[in-house]
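Data availability excerpt. The first of two example chains:
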Amino acid sequence: MRAGVHTGEIERRDGGYLGGLSVHIAARVAALAGPGEVIVSRTVADLLGSGEHELHDHGEHELKGVPGRWQLFTIGA
């Protein structure tokens, strides 16, 4: 399993499809995840706060088609 997680506003498109910048960011984050890895954006990390999830710095990344550099984190147990 591999996963990438981001949160933000989405657009509902014809046929029930979802789109928008947040969907694009989530797809780019997911593409960076390796086997057994869950990567989250800074936005998700901030929402998780200091709960039970251990976050590890995954560095800053340029995400194709997305402005700026994005701080990402992997989630540990």
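And the second chain:
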Amino acid sequence: MNVQCPHCSAPNPPESRFCGACGKALPSALPTRPVIIGEKDFATSESGRALQLDELHRRARTARNILFFLAILQLLFAGALTALGASDATGRSNGLLVLGAAVGVVGLLFLILGFWAGRNPLPASIVGLVLYATLVVGDALASPATIIQGAIIKVFIIIVLAKAVSAGVRHRQLKKHIAQSAPSHA
């Protein structure tokens, strides 16, 4: 089936890119689509850079939200421990109150890291991961029986923190590229 030139109405073979009669470009038989870039590629167009800037902000929010989630989790756990310690009449209440206070301090640290991650997600996420890993290892050294206690939750939290670090790495890459490709106004 021939392709009709939209400029001069001359018939052309289907594989033709230019009209044989007038020489103007023929419409392509294949529809054109936006070029999809990979995660490690960077956009060159203004609209592409705008989309990557949105991605930059989304990555920072991901890291921030993970740290806020962990802060809330720690603070809720601290509240539960404190409530149990306050209602315990057996004499273990002091230990539960101290543990609740310690977990609350960790929750506040994660809250601070969450605010920091809004501006600089990579170092905040790394500090959060190191802080949590240090607490798990310290707890295991103090009482080896605690290694198995809550193992699924510990692994889940470490995976979530690793995801925050990954988001921080991508944020840093995008930020660096956007800074390098920004047009200079000289």
